[in-house]
Hints:
Layout: E1 6-8, E2 12-15, H1 18-29, H2 34-48, E3 58-65, E4 70-76, H3 87-93, H4 110-121, H5 126-139, E5 141-142, H6 145-153, H7 155-158, H8 162-168, E6 169-170, E7 173-174, E8 180-181, H9 184-196, H10 199-202, H11 205-216, H12 223-227, E9 232-234, E10 237-240, E11 245-248, H13 255-265, H14 275-296, H15 313-322, E12 338-344, E13 350-356, E14 404-408, E15 411-418, H16 424-437, H17 442-447, E16 451-453, E17 458-462, H18 468-473, E18 477-481, E19 492-498, E20 501-506, E21 513-516
Parallel strand pairs: 17-18
Antiparallel strand pairs: 1-20, 2-12, 2-21, 3-4, 3-13, 4-9, 5-8, 6-7, 10-11, 11-14, 12-13, 14-15, 15-19, 16-17, 19-20
Helix pairs in contact: 1-2, 2-4, 2-5, 5-9, 13-14, 13-16
Amino acid sequence: MMKMPAWSQRGMVVAEHPLAALAGYQTLRQGGNFADAVVAISAMLSVVTPHLCGLGGDFFGLFWLSGEKRAVFLNGSGWAPQNLRAAPLRRRYKKALPVYSPLTITIPGLVDALSQLHRRYGRLSWSALWQPAATVAREGFPVSTKLASALAANAKRLSKDEGARQVFFRNGRPLKAGEILRQPSLAATLEHIAAEGRSGFYESDLAKSMVQCLQRYGNPVTLDDFQEFTSLWGEPIAWNDRERTILEMPPNALGVATLQSMALLTTFPIARIGATELAGLASAVMRLIAQERDSYLADPNFLSEPPEVLWQPQRIALLRQRLTMDGLPISPPVLGDTTYFAVVDAEGNAASAIQSIFHNFGAGILDPQTGVLFHNRGANFTLQAGHPNELAGRKRPRHTLSAVIVLEGDQLKGLLGTSGGDHRPLIHVWLLVHWLYRGLSLQEAIEHPRVLWQGANRLLVEQGAGDPVALQNAGWQVEVVPYPPVFGTGVAHGIERKGESWCGCADIRGEGIGLPL
């Protein structure tokens, strides 16, 4: 292993930025529980990883309630403005909105989701949980290597927006690694949320400012779209192999693709086949499952059938018959920018949580008055008439986010998740197969070289994930990248129960750490 995991008897926090992990750790040390830690971590990540997530984005969480031996799901994905419709847009844009169009900005769901989580399960003061993030936003923090790279890569797009220029640029150029990023407007917004709660974001002058900002860009959002928004509570979806149960996030989250892939893959001897054969098999499975995803996944109110139908034995048998056949044309995977974090508290409650603004810096539009940078999640809608995921007002787009909880019997075995957009199900499957079936620890599975299906017959292969020549001979077009890569193959984290302890696992591909309680 290149990165040693953290160990603890009492609890664990793993997050993609050290300041976020520290915020969660300090919350638990002060007597907070998993819900309190989630709020503190999420708020801090919204400050220190603006290329990945923020108050202008979405949040999803799976939560394990140790005393009740059950899990619950929270869907904090935003809906489209009431006045946005697909029909008039089809004439101009055909199949989908441009990725960075202001029309892709849906109502941010993160703050509402955190508020609902805290009201239901939180223990500490809501206000106190937001103060560390507000302080860091006001006083500033050093720009990390990953953030600096993202700013450089997106400088041209960000420079076109006044709010983004004010925050992320200095002397006409994007901030560099080691320079201090200060966000005074965002700090004031965080302090307002701390003082006023959910209403401070969705029903205040802050909301009016965000609405006015988006309307200037041509988005037909109204104050009612903000005020009436609500997150959704529900149950996770589950698949089991008789030894363990894998819990994932239901639609409009992407968890169905993880479970359907696991159900199909485990009809093969995945514990025994070679690395190259596994790379080809997993990629072929994901290519097939992408067809299911594109035809099915949508707002939960628009599904054609219950999610569990997708991994019933009869459906899996049919998919296995199709596995070696040429499939229908499908969209290549979308690489999104997201951050996952995991928490286990002193009582054994746990959170497998993920938040995002979709692409790097979302839509690239930042409201100067509030400091809120908006996501572009509506780019995942289709304009195809009659499709379950067709754009409509007050509808949630199909999402790329999901996260995992693994149980053995009624005991928590572990949590895991990753960034990666539409690649997420394959990364989840890759981690689960190597951890649960091929004898690796979770840390080893996270570090293990990966393969990503890139659409059609194209594969992105980290060195060591398989023999590229053999994959090419099998009909794949292979691009090999160094291991570990600089970016592009996801950043995964997790927590594993081993013996009497929790093992916190952070990815060498990212900047995250695990902190033991």
